[in-house]
Specification:
two-stranded antiparallel sheet, mainly alpha, 3% strand, Methane Monooxygenase Hydroxylase, Chain G, domain 1
Length: 271
Amino acid sequence: MVESDIVETAELELFLGRNFVVSNHSTPLYSTESVRQKVETDSRPMKHGADFLAHTLIDTLIDNVLPTIDQMSDVAQDIEEETIHNPQPPTLEAILKLKRSTLRVHRVMAPQREVMNRLSRGEFPIIRAEAQIYYRDVYDHLVRIEDMNQTIRDGADNALATYLSSVANRQNETMKVLSIVAAIFLPLTLVAGIYGMNFEHMPELKWEWAYFAVLGFMGIVIISVIWWFWARSWLAWGRKKSVWVRPFAVSPEKLVGYIGRMAKHPRKNKQ
């Protein structure tokens, strides 16, 4: 089994006749190898006719798809956790690869579902009535795979939206910090620029406490701006974080079969 970042697919060509089944594939497949070993061991897949042998090949092939879907589901959960806690550029790449994998699975499975549906409805006389129910079972497996694949694809879309939202929020936080720093230093730059001019007739330059007065004024400006940002909730320093997530709980008295509820109405329960 070869590891790959994106799901790889292989093509299996199947020709079914009344007394023969021909399969052709250019890539080694576990499913066909498994059926071949069964035929060589006790020839059970061939005892009931060509339609049952074709069903065995198709069913084994579809069953080997389910582990891939389960693995994709695990990868989707890991990506979702990573997107929420630590969104990074590699996370975006993993999301896009997962979306490409789900799209590739959909392109392969969607046409096969229609084929299995037609084979299970008796449209072709080559499929006997006693074999149609088995093809219906394969069709149900295909529907299940499509539903699981669609769920994974929806999860990838949600993860992508969450990633973009997280990146945007992070950029907004960065811009807010830069805006706060700029807002604090702009008035200080103005004061420093005014008293940095080389004019001779500036009365404040002759004051004994002018330097300390300017420094004190700058300190007051810094404290006032920080307090103003904190009052407008731009800064969360020192604020108590509110926990708004609450666990879901249902009162036991509302549940059918609750022991306490049954004890309150013994007569009604006896009836």
